[in-house]
Amino acid sequence: MSGQRVNSFFLGNSSGVSFSIIVSPRDAETGKLQLANCSRSKRAGDWNLDVTPGVNTSKVTVSLSRTLELCLPNATECCPSPLCMVETLQVLACRGSVMLAQLLIQAEIFANSSFAGNVSENATIIPNQAFKPLGSCPCNLTAGACDVRCCCDLECTPDLQQLFSASCFTGVFGGDVNPPFDQLCSSQSMEYTPEWFPFLCVQSSLDNTPFLGYFYHGSTSTPKIPSFKIPLQTSPGKPFTGYREGDPIITEEDEYFTVPQQSMAGQCVGNAPVAYLHNFDVKCLTSLESYKEGLPHDVRINTGTADFIQQNVVYRAITDRGKFITESENLAAEVLCQNVTFAEHYKFTWKDKNIEQINVTVFLGSLCDGEILTQRFTVEFLSLNSTDGEELFENPGYQAGKPVRAANLNASDPLGSLNIWQPAGRGLCASASYRPVLFGVDSYSGCILEVDINEDCSFLRGNVTEKLNALIQATHIGKRDNSSYSDLNDWVEIIRLDPFSSNVSTGGLKGICPDIPANLNIRIIFAKVGAVHGVPQQQILAVQISYSTVLWQFQCGIGCKNTLSILPITASVQFIEVPAQPPPPVTRYHKIYAEFDCNRNEVCWPQLLYPMTRFYTGEPYSQCLAKGLFLAFLILLAAITSNPWFSKLWKN
Questions:
Q1: Are residues 59 and 9 part of one domain?
Q2: DSSP secondary structure, 478-539, as one string
């Protein structure tokens, strides 16, 4: 031990067992310890013995009761030298005069002192662990003291090592940091050495082992981890080749140009990059406490040709705050208000693969503490050749994220609409607004219709059908984004499938109505028909509308005091992509090349050599290898004996 206290444990029943401690001096002539007897004394010199009995284990504590301070002039009861005490202790466990257990303790304790010398500023040189072990004695855990059973500890004197020389730690922890490995020719540590071991063993020095050293210095590749800060798409010196559809717009600082957008979970993301030629119109809820400013409007944008343009920003004040403040708590007489952004509208003017101009309109207003603000952010890409915000024929196909064009060609005003719901508040159909169907965006929305328990089923079906049909104010859908109202070939007629009715009678029961067309399904089939300036052009081929019916049943609440129940009605939009040209039909008679198909034949030629691979586990690999070599020898022998010259040689 090297401290003032050490603990050990006595295993077994300690009932009737007495513990004692004695200081065992060494014999001056032989150097051996004197024999101990059961003295039953728990104090010896400056040492105390404490025993904490347990059920099957007793804790034995040996402690030193003197101080370990260095002696000052004319002082007593102190340490005259740094090595304050060197003694050998024996702890005995006896039952009567019979010794049950004995613990030998070698105490080597130094005096307490503080460092008063000069600190060296020389840096410690750490060797390369690949070729030289950093710690040649891992079991040496205590600085300035001997660790028990650590025979490689240089701080253990020969006298101390005699106490545990037969119980030294083995392996790497005991100091054997560079053991010979099994594949070494001079190693005989393998329990079962195969017969071919002398031919395939490794002849190497111990300086190059799996524990230390590298067998092969191969070339390493740095992993390419994507970063949110994307540099320009080309290396410096090479001109920027322009944007393609869906590419993120880059700023002058080689960062994304971001505008708040909605994520897949419906939440707004403030640092979402703007994609080239992708329009969007989003609304985000915020309060004064959680309000954050977006990207500054003085940031310059990369046009696509390594040039930069400034945003043209126009600031306007909000006159009607009621359109943006959706919820307001009871405000106190004095409340904190701040001028914030209510809406931002971005218009990008583009030509080919470049951005020509950016116009931004920012609406500002006052937001007070306790109010909920609905911010609106819109991004719109307009062609340079457009007039009054309407695209010309330069971009004929649909682009992802743009509204689907609809028309009512049977009316004097052909302008139509194809919408889905955008619920607000309680989600009731009476207060729900509409939003257009965007090309390539699968959508699912709905609202809640309040139904009375005495509602007539026929009236309910007509009411639900009327609300679903209000979403589709059109008879035709435009094949392209620039379909002309005067050309009927630019439009496809909407195929309507009426809801199924089973004519099931409820027998006069209230609160039950079958065959309610509560689900509207819109399926739009489209295909890629070409490309303009490398941008794929997509065209709508067909549109189908169908209904799914449900059985509505009145849901009774607690006590059935409420005579109103709810009926959720939904609308889903699904875009289905098909090939632009139909695939060639399969002929009635064609040859199936299944000769080498292992699943259709009993004989599998591609797996002829499978038993000779490591994946075959039916037999030991050495037997498979031997059988394979023997089979190869028989094939070679058959090939030689079948040769004509071999028969002539055999006759001679």
A1: yes
A2: ESSTT--TT-GGGEEEEEE-PPP------TT-TTEEEEEEEEEEEEEEEEEEEEETTEEEEE
Asked if residues 49 and 92 have their Cβ atoms less than 8 Å apart, the reply is no
Q: Per the structure, how many domains does the chain have?
A: 4
Question: How many whole angstroms separate alpha carbon 552 and alpha carbon 458?
Answer: 12
Residue 610 belongs to what domain range?
Answer: 593-651
Task: Name the pTM for this structure.
Answer: 0.40
- Kind of pairing, strands 354-368 and 312-317? parallel
Q: How many CA atoms lie within 13 A of 520 on its CB side?
A: 26
Q: Is the pLDDT of residue 50 over 60?
A: yes
Long-range contacts of 40-45 (CB under 8 A, 24+ apart): 40/94, 44/89, 45/87
pLDDT at 476: 93
Q: How far apart are CA 575 and CA 485, in angstroms?
A: 23
Question: What is the torsion angle, in degrees rounded to the nearest 10, for the CA atoms of residue 506, residue 509, residue 511 and residue 515?
Answer: 0
Residue for token pair 């400056």? 46
Distances (CA, A) of 78 to 84, 88, 116, 280, 615: 8, 20, 20, 85, 74
d(CA 591, CA 604): 19
- Is 16 in a helix, a strand, or coil? coil
Task: List CB contacts of 619: < 8 A, sequence separation 6 or more.
Answer: 611
pLDDT tens digits, one per residue of 251-281: 988 889 999 988 776 678 888 899 988 888 8
Tally of CA atoms within 13 A in the half-sphere of 55 that contains its CB:
0
Residue type at 571? A
Report pLDDT digits (tens) over 368-426.
Answer: 888 888 888 999 888 876 544 444 444 577 888 788 999 988 887 788 889 998 877 77
| Cα–Cα dist 287/367, whole Å | 8
Give the model confidence (pLDDT) of 456-489 as tens digits: 888 888 899 999 989 998 999 999 888 888 888 8
| Three-state secondary structure readout of 71-93 | CCCCCCCCECCCEEEEEEEEEEE
Does some domain include residue 440?
Answer: yes
**What is residue 575's predicted lDDT score, i.e. its pLDDT?**
94
User: What tokens does 381 get?
Assistant: 């890409």
Instruction: Report the SS3 class of residue 569.
Output: strand
**Do residues 546 and 441 both lie within one domain?**
yes
Task: Please classify residue 82 by burial: count the beta carbons closer than 10 Å to its beta carbon, then call 0-12 exposed, 13-18 middle and 19+ buried.
Answer: exposed
Strands (E), 352-396: 354-368, 371-383
Tokens of 169: 């730690």
Residues 336 and 476 in one domain: no
pLDDT, tens digit (0-9, with 9 covering 90-100), for 409-423 = 888 778 888 999 887
Question: Which of 349, 383, 417 marks a domain boundary?
Answer: 383
Which is it for strands 512-532 and 535-553: parallel, antiparallel or unpaired? antiparallel
Distance CA 141, CA 45 (A): 30
Each residue of 523-566: pLDDT tens digit?
A: 999 998 877 766 778 899 999 999 998 888 887 755 566 667 88
Calculate the average pLDDT of the chain: 79
pLDDT at 126: 67
Q: From CA 62, how far away is CA 66, in angstroms rounded?
A: 13
